[in-house]
Amino acid sequence: MTRYWMLIVVALVAMQAARADDAVTRLARLLADKGLISREELAAVQRSGPEEAVALLTDLLARKGLLTASEVAAVVQRSPGGAGDVRFVPVVAANATPAPAPVQAPRSTGAETAGAVTTASKSPLQFYGTILWNAFGNTAGTNVEDIPLVASKNGSDPYQNFGMTARQSRFGLRFQGPDVFGAKMSGTMEMDFFGGKTPLTNGVNMDIFRLRLAYGRLDWHNVSIEAGQDWAVFSPLNPTSLASFAIPSMSASGNPWIRSPQFRFESRAEHLLFQAAVLDPNIGDNPTTVVDARTPGIGERGGAPAVESRLAAVGKIGDRDVSVGFSGHYNRGLNVGTIGSQTATRGVDSWGVNLDYTLPFHRRFGLTGEAFVGRALGLFSVASGEAVLPPGTPGEHGVLARGGWMQAQINLNPRWQINAAYGIEAMDPANLRVGDRAKNQTYMANLMRKLNQRITLSWEWRRILTDYRNQQTANAIIDLANMGIAYTF
Question: Looking only at Cα atoms, what is the longest distance across the chain?
Fold first, then answer.
């Protein structure tokens, strides 16, 4: 009976939308309080106009299995403007949340939609995804051609390059289960095609699956527990970009990030959110070649899980969410290597502290960003490839780094959006060898155009400046351009 009640309410709200602009918002807030839609989905509805909000809310209920296709059609037919003209809700989230502040929230990817099916237990199962095509050009060599993070040393690869790819596309499944001990049970599994290239002469576009998310979750009114692979509690925000969809924008330029196996606890009060987790003790020294076995790394040799926590103050400015959070990460590891002919071991304390903020100053303008300091944070793409150096070198106990990023987001109207960001990451030169990467900076600007509820166009420019310790002639600057077309379902 619940879905029929929702159908009637949404239809009545749609008929009155022209006269009662906030009726849909009140309904969405009620559904969020009951746990039927997430806070991120509520924020997307609140940012929409009355007609667009009806279409968005109806679609949310449909992909959660609460409305059937025929019921959705009935609501759309009653809506004054139909469902063809919807407010801009970026597809990115995550790695993936609606504008103006793309925060962690991998459980809600903004504009993703899907028709729900049921499992053998009659519980709703939703299939969702984003088909993303990118065309890109770089003025010189970099570490990754289609999602550059750092500039190659000056002169090592001076040739410009151009290419296209669809490997940032992703898909996933969301499960809504029955209540367990009074909690709402849910689960998510998500994959993309960023796992590598097939070893064939023509295999450059035969991309391999990569696991992104795989977790189960129990949500009570004020408390939640979760087990599986999810975004880390530490450093939860990401900039908005369709050029960097598989790897978050500003990675290696002030944006620590990772999706890691963990067991998480969350507690929510009126204006506070507390999160704590124990995680896989990875420090980021995994081999970059394909292997068929997992061997102990620096973190695993520490013999204990990593731990993280975050405390955030949350609230609203008008109908817009605002938050300021502090998070921390710690992992004990053991660096094993050789000095001459002797085996050497060095203790490694991987740690980090992070400030994150989401500040919507106006309904059309907001700031989002983070600042961090930490040591041996290679897992988070900080000092990637040199976060812990071999025994006998200055960084044998881990490389100290600091940095951060800031993004300004301007919503020109429901269809056009501008994002501009800057990020920087600097390593302590006392921990580095000659020729190691010492500083990395990224400037980014993109323009997004929402054609309809499912299709988004994006044009992005980025400049990367990479400095190397005591090798000034190797310092490099590259520019890159990217166009993306995303279709969400």
Answer: 82
Domain boundaries, the chain: 2-78, 116-488
pLDDT at 195 over 70: yes
Residue 396: C-alpha distances to residues 281, 375, 390, 430, 435 (Å): 18, 11, 5, 11, 16
- Check the CA dihedral 297-441-149-107 and report its sign: positive
Residue 403: what pLDDT?
A: 98
Closest Cα partner for 184 from 176, 194, 193? 176
| Mean pLDDT of all residues belonging to the chain | 85
The whole-number pLDDT of residue 99 equals 36
Could you say which of 3.40.47.10, 3.40.190.10, 2.40.160.10, 3.30.70.2570 is the CATH number of the domain covering 116-488? Answer: 2.40.160.10
CA nearest to 396, candidates 439, 356, 340, 347: 347
* Each residue's pLDDT tens digit, 5-50: 454 444 444 444 434 446 777 787 777 766 678 766 777 777 666 6
> Which residues is 151 bridged to in the sheet?
142
Please give the structure tokens belonging to residue 262. 């963990």
Contact residues for 197 (Cβ-Cβ < 8 A; gap 6+)? 203, 204, 206, 207, 208
* Cα-based distances in Å from 488 to 48, 109, 305: 18, 10, 36
Model-level pTM? Answer: 0.78
How far is the C-alpha of 406 from the C-alpha of 304, rounded, in Å?
34
